[in-house]
């Protein structure tokens, strides 16, 4: 068989494009290192989420090749080495943009959650839908060598009442770490907090305690303490941040910084972030944010799909700050980690999460098995998509839980982080969980006429299994990809402009009735 010169050239080109133009970054102890050179790695970057001019329902700057080409040139001018991206659509093509970033030596930190698939801080769950969507995003981006880290939650727990959500984020970290490991990927998974003074130490300790497989692999802080030219390392509270992370067992860094109460921003904090004040403890930082949006944090003004760039008055100050940022670290070969893992915070005061217990790993096969054992199930076989239908479904689910769970134990489909109790089917979808409740009620009523009706919401079926005794033995079969789109804006702004947060903005108690949880879930998450 003859092979043409053109074919050989194509093969050679394909092999060349597969060769990484960027060195892998690894973790040793509490620091990041360049695996090839052994030099300590510090993040010198920006938060990157251009929003002006977007008409697509699923905004994704890494799919905008015109914008990427425009911004990569700016990144080079700034002298940065990394960006944090909150919002992408994993169904789109990112090859061209990711290659441009790779060739420019730019690493990409990605948030895994999306608005439709995020852990809700008010009524948290870690379920099959979330896990599937998160796995799909990992699948879409794992081929790119410049993906440096994943963030599993951004400011999810942001006050005392929302601390139970931390258990669900930690369970997500455990399962995403396991998923990455199953694919022979070493990209670390971490968490970013909002620097809340009441809960920050509990969060810092919680994400680095208990079983190693469930710990965060790095800890990130979004902070806006340093405001104006008169602030100092001490007066800003940056010294407190550094002190809090001293002797921490995993790497820490700033994933957002850059107070805008005084403009232009002169970024005097950069000298401390990349100087002797902090480099012994933290691994650099990413400034919030690259583009000027409604929240007034940008250093450039751009529009989606346009090649034009206009610098704001902050640009020259940030460029000058980056030029002077020359952090001095340690060599990986000579670095000997000595820190130990943290002690989990106990329930009480500003903390409502019992240590030593986490939500179970979601498993579609377990939920499907459970459904085969039921005699009374929901007539609805798939989640409604229209708003009015969702509202009606949520009302029905709330009524079922409010009625049935007042008389029967619904623990198998409920959670209570403060007590460390997580039902074996708590990760199943809303239809599966409400079916379990209706069936439990039906069995309690000994199958009398009308006990599987629930105002026409349920129906009697012939079960395929005599009981659910083997269902919990099912292994997780999630393969990712529950949605046709993946938007990444998770919720509230966390108090510092429009940023991702991993929760809805509704304010309810962190531990509420199962009926209220499912009504809210049906109405807002599914």
Provide an overview of this structure.
- The chain is of the alpha/beta class and 526 residues long.
- The chain is 29% helix and 12% strand.
- The strands form 5 sheets. The chain has an 8-stranded parallel β-sheet with strand order 10-9-8-7-6-5-4-11.
- Helix 2 packs parallel to helix 3 and helix 4 (128-141) packs across helix 5.
Oligomer: single chain
The end-to-end span amounts to: 55 Å
Instruction: Report the principal-axis shape.
Output: globular
What's the overall average pLDDT, rounded? 89
Helix-strand pattern: HEEEEHEHEHEHEHEHEHEEEHHEHEEHEH
Please describe the biggest sheet, giving its number of strands, its sense, and whether it closes into a barrel: 8 strands, parallel
> How many β-strand runs?
17
Helix-residue proportion: 25-40%
Strand-residue fraction?
Answer: 5-15%
Strand order of the largest sheet: 10-9-8-7-6-5-4-11
Poorly predicted residue ranges = 1-18, 480-526
Structure class: alpha/beta
Number of helices: 13
Task: Please compute the radius of gyration using only Cα atoms.
Answer: 24 Å
């Amino acid at each position: 068989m003859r092979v043409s010169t053109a074919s050989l050239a194509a093969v050679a080109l394909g092999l060349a494009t597969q060769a990484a133009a960027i060195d892998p970054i690894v973790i040793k102890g509490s620091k990041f290192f360049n695996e090839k050179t052994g030099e300590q790695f510090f993040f010198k970057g920006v938060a990157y989420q251009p929003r002006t001019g977007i008409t697509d329902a699923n905004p994704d700057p890494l799919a905008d090749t015109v914008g990427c080409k425009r911004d990569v040139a700016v990144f080079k001018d700034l002298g940065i080495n990394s960006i944090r991206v909150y919002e992408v659509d994993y169904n789109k093509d990112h090859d061209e943009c990711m290659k441009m970033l790779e060739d420019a030596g730019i690493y990409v930190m990605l948030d895994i959650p999306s608005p439709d698939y995020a852990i809700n801080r008010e009524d948290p769950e870690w379920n099959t839908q979330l896990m599937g969507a998160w796995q799909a995003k990992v699948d879409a981006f794992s081929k790119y060598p410049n993906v440096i880290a994943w963030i599993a939650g951004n400011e999810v727990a942001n006050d005392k009442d929302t601390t139970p959500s931390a258990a669900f984020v930690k369970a997500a970290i455990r399962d995403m770490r396991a998923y990455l490991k199953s694919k022979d990927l070493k990209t670390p998974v971490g968490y970013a907090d909002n620097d809340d003074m009441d809960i920050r130490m509990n969060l810092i300790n919680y994400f680095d305690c208990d079983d190693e497989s469930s710990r965060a692999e790095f800890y990130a802080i979004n902070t806006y303490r340093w405001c104006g030219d008169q602030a100092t390392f001490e007066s800003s509270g940056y010294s407190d941040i550094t002190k809090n992370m001293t002797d921490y067992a995993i790497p820490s860094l700033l994933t957002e910084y850059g107070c805008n109460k005084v403009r232009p921003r002169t970024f005097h904090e950069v000298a401390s972030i990349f100087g002797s004040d902090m480099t012994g403890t933290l691994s650099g930082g990413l400034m919030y944010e690259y583009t000027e949006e409604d929240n007034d944090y940008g250093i450039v003004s751009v529009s989606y799909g346009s090649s034009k760039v206009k610098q704001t008055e902050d640009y020259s100050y940030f460029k000058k700050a980056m030029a002077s940022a020359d952090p001095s670290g340690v060599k990986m070969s000579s670095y000997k980690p000595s820190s130990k893992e943290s002690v989990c915070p106990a329930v009480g005061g500003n903390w409502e999460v019992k240590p030593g217990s986490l939500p179970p790993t979601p498993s579609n096969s377990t939920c499907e098995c459970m459904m085969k054992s039921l005699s009374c199930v929901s007539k609805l076989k798939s989640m409604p998509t229209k708003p009015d239908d969702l509202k009606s479904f949520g009302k029905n689910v709330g009524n079922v839980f409010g009625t049935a769970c007042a008389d029967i134990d619904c623990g198998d489909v409920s959670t209570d982080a403060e007590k460390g109790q997580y039902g074996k089917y708590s990760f199943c979808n809303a239809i599966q969980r409400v079916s379990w409740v209706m069936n439990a009620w039906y069995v309690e009523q000994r199958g009398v006429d009308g006990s599987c009706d629930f105002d026409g919401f349920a129906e009697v079926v012939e079960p395929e299994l005599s009981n659910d005794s083997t269902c919990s033995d099912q292994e997780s079969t999630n393969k990712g990809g529950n949605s046709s789109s993946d938007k990444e804006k998770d919720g509230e702004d966390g108090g510092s402009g429009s940023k991702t947060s991993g929760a809805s903005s509704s304010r309810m108690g962190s531990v509420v009735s199962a009926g209220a949880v499912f009504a809210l879930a049906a109405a807002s998450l599914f």
